[in-house]
Every structure is written in C-alpha cells, then in structure tokens.
Specification:
The protein is built from 11 helices and 8 strands. The protein has 2 domains: about 230 residues, Alpha-Beta Barrel (TIM Barrel), CATH 3.20.20; about 25 residues. An 8-stranded parallel barrel has the order 1-2-3-4-5-6-7-8, surrounded by 6 helices. The chain is α/β, with parallel strands linked by helices. Helix 6 runs parallel beside helix 8 and helix 8 runs parallel beside helix 9. Helix 9 links the parallel strand 6 and strand 7.
Length: about 260
C-alpha cells in the first residue's frame, strides 16, 4: 500500500515509522521491498556517494538527479527529498520553485527542510501550495561550518524549550512530521509528546515516533559509522572479497570459463 502523509500521520502512537535513505533506483527497490515507510533522498549523498566532507556542496541539481532515480523505482514508500544547503534561506518564491522542481521534474512526494520557527512562515506557504514538508530540527548538518562541528542538542532546559517551540511552530505551519537529529533523549521525548504529528529520530533515542538511518551505515559501507547507528551487515568486506576474486580471476585467466563465454 502506498504511503502518504495521511497514512504516516495515522502511525503516531500506533506503529513506528521506518525511514531509510536511498540515492538510486537499486537501493530504493531494496528499501521498499524491506517495508520501509519513507525513502529519504538525503543530502547525505554528499558524504556517502559523492566524496564530499559535508552536505554543504550538494546542489539542487544533484538532489533532483538522485530523487528522480529513486522515484523511477516506483516504491510504495513515500519519496522524501532534502532541500539542500542555502535554498531555505532564499526568497519564498525561489524556495517554492525549488520544491516544484523536485516534485514536477524529479518525482518527489514530500520535502525535508532544516530549520525551526524561523522558517515556519515559509513552511506554511509551501503547505498552502500543496507541498508536503517534513521539518528538521536539533543538529542541522547544513550549518556545520557555523556550528564548528557536530554535537547533541537539548541537554539544557533552554535548548529543550527551544526545540519544543521550534517543533510546535513547524506543526502549526503545516509540517506533516518533524525529524529530530542528535537530540537528547529526554528532549526528544518531550517534543514527541508535544506534537500531534510524528517525530522521526536519528541519534535521538527510542521515544520518537520513528527512526531513520543512512543506508551505508546500515549496510556497513561507511568509512565512519556514527555511534547512534547500527550496522546490520558488513558489505564492505563482502564486496571487497568479491571484487578481489574477480580481479584475480581475470589476471590468472580463470575468468571467463567456457561456461561464461557461451
């Protein structure tokens, strides 16, 4: 059954939302076959697939290219695309144009935008235009140069209150869900209880209404795995073994055999 904003909303308090990143049709099909509710075409593709040190260099054109590849898998999961660095800081008309491009040209079914109360007015405008928006608060990786690094948020009463205020502002603006990244467990629980829309956690404890992980972390393909991620396979070792055997067979003449040469 196709996942929509309506079906995702109904999962709050009933069933946990499972979200996995994918950046092409191959991995999108695998995530969908596993039963993922949302496939996030994240700007994490910059770190994982494109060789960048952060998400900042990822452009709208890159996001559209990879979102289109995921959409061509025609998944039952919702296709959610990240709005890349700088776009939310532009004028509303420019942001709407960016979202329209991801919808009309790339096949996105929702977008995720980093920011809290300061972008609520734009989120409301997007919602009025028919764009489904997931908010993203806590750690905002696109601000890594401003922050000077990555850290946990919500450890102080002030930060906790600010997170709740940001989340409620996004909900009131029409966001269908809010992602909490690197948020203190108790603060994430407070935000989740304060909202009627689902929260999706990454490094934010078990109280969120759902969880998301980057596919390369799940599969053991990342050169660095965050402490909050769980590696469910070691595909780096398996792929390295297979590639090495192939190279050795080519050089030795063991491949192709008469069977493969038919």
């Amino acid at each position: 059954m196709k996942r929509t904003t309506k079906s995702i909303a109904k999962m709050k308090g009933v069933s946990k939302v499972a979200m996995i990143t994918a950046y092409d049709a191959l991995f999108a099909r695998l995530a969908d076959a596993a039963g993922a509710d949302i496939i996030l075409v994240g700007d994490s593709l910059g770190n994982t697939f494109m060789g960048f040190d952060s998400t900042v260099p990822v452009t709208l054109e890159m996001m559209a290219h990879h979102t289109a590849a995921v959409a061509r898998a025609n998944p039952d999961a919702m296709v959610l695309a990240d709005i890349p660095f700088g776009c939310a800081g532009m004028s509303f008309d420019r942001l709407l144009d960016d979202c329209r491009a991801l919808y009309q040209k790339a096949g996105a079914e929702a977008v995720k935008i980093e920011g809290g109360a300061e972008i609520a007015e734009k989120v409301a405008g997007l919602a009025s235009a028919g764009i489904a928006v997931m908010g993203h608060i806590g750690l905002r990786p696109q601000q890594v140069f401003k922050l000077g690094g990555y850290r946990k948020f919500g450890k102080t009463p002030e930060e906790r209150a600010a997170l709740v205020a940001d989340a409620k502002a996004l909900e009131e603006a029409g966001a269908f869900a809010v992602l909490l990244e690197m948020v203190d467990d108790s603060a994430a629980e407070a935000v989740t209880k304060a909202l009627s829309v689902p929260t999706i956690g990454i490094g934010s404890g078990p109280a969120c209404d759902g969880q998301v992980l980057v596919c390369t972390d799940i599969l053991g393909l990342s050169s660095f795995t965050p402490s909050f991620a769980k590696k469910y396979a070691d595909l780096t070792a398996e792929i390295s073994r297979a590639y090495s055997e192939y190279v050795a067979d080519v050089r030795s003449g063991a491949f192709p055999t008469p069977r493969e040469a038919k």
